[in-house]
Amino acid sequence: MVKESPTAADAAGLIQGWYAEGLRAVDPRRAVAQSIAREGNRLILDSRQIDLGADSRVVAVAVGKAACQMARGLDDAPGMGISRGVILTKDGHATNAPPNWHVFEASHPVPDERGVAATREILGAMESLTEGDVAIVLVSGGGSALLESPRDGLSLKDIQETTRLMLHAGAPIQHLNAVRSELSQVKGGGMRRVIGGAVCLSLIHSDVLGNDPSLIASGPTIGRTPNPRAALELLGKYDLVDRVPRAVLKVLRAVSKPPPNPDVSRDAFLIVGDNDEFVGEVSDQVEQSGFRSSIVLRRAEGEAKSLAAHFVETIEAQPAKVDAVIGGGEATVTVQGEGRGGRNTEFALAAAIELQDRGLDWVIASLASDGQDGSIDAAGAIVDRQTVEGGRDQGLDAQSYLDNNDSGGYFEKLGVLVAPGPTGANVNDVYIAVRVASNRAKVSSLA
Question: Is residue 120 predicted with pLDDT exceeding 50?
């Protein structure tokens, strides 16, 4: 146990350092470079070997928020040489792309025409592959919104509206992707069908808790059995059956024969980063700093406000010997107000209110690994129980801002947002709480 509890300002600094170290541990560039290599006429993925012929082509595609970093990793991999490379990433994330790769940016989390056009380009690159060729597909979170080709009978507007409705209803990513997979020609193994007889190697940087490869970016290279009934049930769960476009219901209710799946016996996929690894490294960094820590949440889900309350209840119950508490997961937000923010800022503001109500001397952070949280340009925020008082001194009512889903606006005024910019990673979120000395200073001490 640390000899003396830190101040709130010191705790905030420590938290940002631990967060940065956690991100380094799940660096997608390094993870890809260490996972794959080429030795002459062989490709080696982890322990899997794929023989290449003299005329074999290797075509690579990187899709998602971590696409550029993953492509860089493939470019760094020993002996690797590719015939063609295509990147599709979120606006603002197309940085440090390897030379000679064709780079596209598109909208996230709601798809746009640029993503549809880039998807056509990607599918065109895959259609030319033959049985002796290899497709390397680098997948990361965000890919489901970016990579899109609507099914026959649907327009992009139909998918955009369905996506918005599910996001505002607080649907977690796995439910959103389960519905979107039924509406797309490229999701749910659709890209894999285009690849045909070539070998497909998928390296996946996971933003889905539990790492189901059929859900990460809606599994473009992972075959699945279509399940439109389950999609309809999910729309019912969120009271959206009467609100989604009629064309969506028509497609989901139609009886259609599933398309044939190609032979995937030579395929392989590998998870090259996830939330458990991220949270584990943060915990290790906390311990190396001399704090005794406890991981209390793994793969946590639920409404951000409720999850924050549970987290505060958990830290209140910790024995005196515990200096820091850590969790990992990804909350959701049911949007009812008109403010700005995301799941992490909403978690943080709800936690600050709980700390104030309970009189607890802890500093809490809720931070997104990708550096961007909802509609606010920040990873999240760091708070303590003075966050509420600090707001009152500026004429701000924390609960009113929370009720209006305007946590981002609240924290902008107080200057406690953590805004690293796009990090190149995307492995969900981390929650960190540090026990601090009783601190009556204003929240500005955390900035």
Answer: yes
